[in-house]
Amino acid sequence: MEYVQAPATISQANILCCTCGVPIPPNPANMCVACLRTQVDISEGIPKQVTVNFCKQCERYLQPPATWMSCALESRELLSLCLKKIKSSMTKVRLIDAGFLWTEPHSKRIKMKVTIQKEVMNGAILQQVFVVEFVIQYQMCDDCHRVEAKDFWKAVVQVRQKTTHKKTFYYLEQLILKHKLHQNALNIKEMNDGIDFYYSTKQHAQKMTDFLQCTVPCRSKTSQRLISHDIHSNTFNYKSTYSMEIVPVCKDNVICLSPKLAQSLGNMGQVCVCVRVTSTIHLIDPNTLQIAEVDGGTFWRNPFSSLCSPRQLEEFIVMDIDVLRNQKLGAGAGIRSNKHLLAELWVQKTAEMDGQQYHCRTYLGHLLNIGDLVQGYDFVNSNINDEHLNKMKPHTIPDVVLIKKCYDRNRRSKRRNWKLHEMERDREGMAPNDERQYEDFLEDLEEDEALRKNINIYRDASKIAVESDTDEEGAPRVSLAEMLEELSLTDATGEDGAEMMTE
């Protein structure tokens, strides 16, 4: 075994500080840290107290020259904003570290500990830690100032639809909530036939109009009104108005196409049913199951309207049903629906059980059986004034057009374990919402899986959990897999979080 002698450690000789005489390791300045700090202050010129402007109305901080930012306390965004306030005075030092010190939330003070380095005498590098205090000063931002001055908007988007039912508006509201486009609006006001969105900038209004044109079939008009004009700087102040008109067709409406449009859609029948309204109008022919989509441009070139209002829906009972399979279509026919089944029915009004029976065709053959209740429109006993319908031959006009199968509405409402969010809007001077129309929209979501894929559905914790997609009588339901959990304060801060936030 060989023993290897370890090399002798070379001890570094200390020197005496040239000022106080304390033994120290040698350094380029030949001074101890205490004496060096008395001679040089590397934080000189950096302000120890800075003012930060804060708007109490919208809770945003001012980032000069004119940008307002939403920052939480002790967040990375607020740290970046505070460092920019002292950045101009730190050009000759190097920033090593920065962090917040705890202060009372209501003290109007933000303390930040800053660590810097600088090369001083003869190349010696000195590091120093100091505290910068930021004083919060209240200042109202321009947006809030315009709100208080009652001159708060620069652009307004007026969304209108000339229909008696608000199904399209309920669907549009959920899309706006999902994409959070309502957050930029200064005010949302409900009108008789639509809703108005007020914005502080023209860019936010244009963003909303672009979203509407991609979401629902509509057409737009733009107008400007001159508010003021500065002749010296040649600047103009305008208020812009964007008028968006949505097609006057909703789900479950019966419409009559013009012969030219029906032929261009694959020789469809002129009398069709609207099964869905998304970015296009989805139509189905109840006699042949042909389906077609009509976009906004096609509609405005060949307009059509609903033949009957939802209030004219009547309840029928199925007396006899005969499913039609392998039906041949004519030349030039379009696409047929695979989700529906064509059937011939004999129906009778439930209000007139001793009355006559009506023969019709329907696309609901996959849902209906003898004895089922179904809603539809009675064309025989209705006075309909439509340009295209009046020109049709009488034998081509159906006696009854069936729309949807009837279920027990009270039972469906009680067992519905999900809910939707609503936008906060000004309803001053408006009549209360039609609960029946909103209930119809909720039922449409349960019956149409493709429609509810585009919106957020939240689980209602106060209702019983559902595992199946249908109930005892066969009514469709929303499955748990399609529901989202609603975020609450207790989820983010624990059991005591709500009490802490309300104190």
From TrEMBL:
Belongs to the NMD3 family. This is 60S ribosomal export protein NMD3. Acts as an adapter for the XPO1/CRM1-mediated export of the 60S ribosomal subunit. It comes from Gymnodraco acuticeps (Antarctic dragonfish). Keywords: Cytoplasm, Nucleus, Protein transport, Transport. Residues 249-295 form the 60S ribosomal export protein NMD3 SH3 domain. Residues 313-405 form the 60S ribosomal export protein NMD3 OB-fold domain. It is found in: Cytoplasm; Nucleus. GO terms for cellular component: cytoplasm; nucleus. GO terms for molecular function: ribosomal large subunit binding. GO terms for biological process: protein transport; ribosomal large subunit export from nucleus. The gene is nmd3. Its main location: cytoplasm. Residues 17-246 form the Nmd3 N-terminal domain.
